[in-house]
Write a structure and sequence with these properties.
The complex is a heterodimer of chains A (263) and B (373). With 263 residues, chain A is of the alpha/beta class. Chain A contains 12 helices and 5 strands. Helices cover 40% and strands 11% of the residues of chain A. Chain B starts with 11 loop residues before the first strand and ends with a helix. The chains are: A alpha/beta (263), B alpha+beta (373).
């Protein structure tokens, strides 16, 4: 990579929170701005440099036919395409439509449904184009984003751990909310990234960083059931920001489709 | 315990009122007191400042995958067993910077660890925890490579042990021959009674502190009462692990179907290794700032249950939960003996209580032994 790589930040269906994480990285932003040329970042500046880009950060999921086309152009323009956040990586909260009747949603929400042109599904960027790296989280962790940029500048593999949230709880001395309170915590199957934020504030993990490496969903949901958590609550818990991530999706579908009371 | 010389046992009686002075005496001796206190619905180890910080009148109820605080019907200060934390948090800190480097005009300038901990007084160390410290001493202090962070913290720490007078359902120290009575490895040892404590010193530093406290002669009856209280803990221990030939038992059963059975339940979440007072694995990473001019080498607790932990040379050598659980249990109970001349398990039961799905290693060993179907 040449001395000052060009960075583009692109948005699809999303809340902009992940892009804000980059702007929030105040202590590091000047260093980032010094290390890369910010060539396309509408959230920060209306000045636009044309492609190609050395690094394309892509936020959001694909929910319209227009976006399904647009991502291909970004892929053609980008040397490294990195998705940022749960929407881009797993379809986001808007992927709840994948289990529902989307036209019915449109009719219920919009006064003039005819104005709405949308796909029936919300899908991850990797379902449409080749992605070089997926950065998890809802929202992403700004330090992990800086780490990705740093690793690209240094030409090394990024350091983004794939272990469970539990390891972070234990390192920081947070006491397990599952063991002390029987809380339905997704920490044991969720990838690290937030620093164990929710358990540290005395509630179960919501799974914002998606499935950890080789998660054991069945054992965990069996334990939830044994602790008296209703099956519907477990299904809803799995179907949130990362509900359409394969491991979470398979388990919530399994629970929903199991006719007998969950053992 | 401190490195001061051993002294002859001489039991004294310390009233509950006089016990409160201990905090002042420790402070006068330059110690920062770490001890049991209630936080996050558990009895954790943290910095404490007075007797008021201790869990007076509380106990814990433990079972596989479950821990609950319960009020007691008396005013015991140490009426519970071990909780989610262990002293390793203070001797082998979860995060540590072990070296730094700065780029200067004269080239890279390297600096070693700058760890500057206070002098700790650990109050309320149980017999299984004394055993765990001895195990970690072998790991960090023996052989060619001594860990300077552990060494400095350990050698300056005062250890005030407390004999257990009750047991949790998860305790099995009697099987591991580590407790419940404290026999060595402390500066001071206490046995709590309703009226106060029987206290004894094992080192000169401990004796010095003991001399600063208002104590009286421990009457024969009081000593008998203390013995009976300690015996009560022995009698309450129900969990057993048969350690007969355990090294060979596990190593000759590496393909036992039980490993697959436990892997169906195991979350590979790392909790058992994190709460284990002897597990010592860590990872080291190099962290630089964006300019690349300041670099730190950071060490943090890691675990054989972490998928990334056995990643090497383009692949993962323990690519499934079965192999990771097997690695942990066979190391803890078998190959640890080859490596350090002792078991890695002290029978504290933390891995049983703090496993979110309640996996019990004593049950796994029994299954491999063929004692249960």
């Amino acid at each position: 990579m040449h001395s000052k790589p060009k960075l583009g930040v692109f948005k699809f269906a999303s809340c902009d929170g992940c892009q804000l994480s980059l702007l929030d990285a105040e202590d590091h932003l000047l260093a980032v701005a010094g290390a890369v040329e910010i060539a396309y970042f509408l959230e920060a500046t209306s000045r636009i440099e044309p492609g190609p880009y050395d690094i394309a950060l892509v936020e959001g999921s694909i929910t319209t036919a227009h976006d399904a086309e647009r991502i291909h152009q970004i892929r053609r323009d980008a040397r490294f395409l990195i998705t940022i956040g749960a929407c881009a990586t797993a379809g986001g909260i808007q992927a709840l439509r994948n289990w529902a009747d989307c036209p019915e949603f449109v009719r219920s929400v919009y006064a003039t449904p005819a104005y709405i042109s949308t796909l029936d599904t919300s899908t991850a960027i990797a379902d449409h184009v080749k992605v070089d790296f997926e950065l998890r989280g809802c929202p992403i962790n700004q330090y992990q984003l800086i780490e990705i940029i740093q690793s690209l500048l240094a030409g090394r593999r990024p350091r983004t751990p794939v272990h469970s949230v539990c390891l972070d709880c234990k390192r920081r001395g947070t006491v397990c909310v599952m063991v002390t309170q029987g809380a339905a915590c997704l920490g044991p199957v969720t990838q690290s990234g937030c620093g164990a934020l929710c358990p540290t504030y005395n509630r179960g993990c919501y799974g914002c960083y998606g499935p950890a490496a080789q998660p054991n969903l069945v054992s965990l949901t069996n334990q939830f059931s044994a602790a008296g958590v209703p099956r519907d609550d477990v299904v809803r818990g799995l179907r949130s920001f990362n509900g359409y991530a394969p491991e979470f999706r398979v388990e919530s579908d399994r629970l929903e489709n199991s006719r007998e009371p969950h053992a | 315990m401190t490195t001061s010389t051993a002294v002859k046992s001489k039991e004294r009686f310390l009233s509950k009122e006089a016990f409160a002075q201990l905090f002042t005496v420790l402070r006068d001796h330059g110690y920062t007191v770490i001890g049991p206190t209630i936080d996050q619905e558990a009895i954790v180890y943290d910095r404490i400042h007075s007797v008021d910080d201790l869990p007076l009148g509380w106990t814990d109820e433990q079972a596989p995958g479950s821990y609950r605080l319960k009020p007691r019907d008396d005013e015991a200060l140490f009426g519970y067993v071990v909780g989610p934390h262990s002293w390793k948090r203070f001797l082998f800190p979860p995060e540590a910077t072990i070296a730094e480097a700065n780029k200067t005009d004269a080239g890279w300038q390297f600096e070693g660890t700058t760890d500057d901990p206070p002098k700790f007084a650990f109050l309320g160390v149980r017999a299984c925890e004394l055993a765990a410290m001895r195990v970690q001493d072998r790991v960090f202090l023996s052989g060619a490579y001594v860990d300077p962070i552990y060494q400095r913290r350990r050698s300056r720490s005062l250890v005030i042990a407390v004999n257990c007078t009750q047991a949790a359902s998860t305790c099995f120290c009697t099987s591991m021959r580590t407790g419940p009575q404290c026999t060595s490895g402390y500066d001071l040892v206490l046995t709590e009674l309703a009226s106060g404590f029987v206290i004894d010193a094992a080192t000169a530093e401990g004796a010095d502190i003991l001399d600063s406290l208002e104590t009286t002669v421990a009457l024969i009856e009081t000593q008998q009462e203390a013995r009976a209280a300690r015996q009560q803990a022995v009698q309450q221990i129900e969990r057993r692990m048969d350690t007969t030939d355990i090294r060979d038992l596990l190593l000759s059963n590496l393909e036992h179907p039980r490993w697959s059975h436990v892997a169906e339940r195991c979350l590979s979440c790392t909790n058992c290794t994190m709460v284990c007072p002897t597990c010592f694995c860590s990872s080291v990473k190099e962290v630089s700032d964006l300019s690349g001019e300041h670099v730190e080498r950071q060490r943090h607790w890691d675990s054989c249950f972490n998928f990334d932990f056995s990643y090497m040379n383009g692949g993962n050598v323990r690519d499934n939960t079965r192999s990771r659980y097997r690695q942990w249990l066979t190391h803890k109970l078998s190959s640890w003996i080859d490596q350090f001349g002792t078991s890695g398990c002290v029978g504290c039961g933390r891995c049983i209580t703090w496993c979110p799905v309640g996996i019990d290693l004593t049950e796994e060993v029994a299954a491999i032994r063929g004692d249960v179907p």
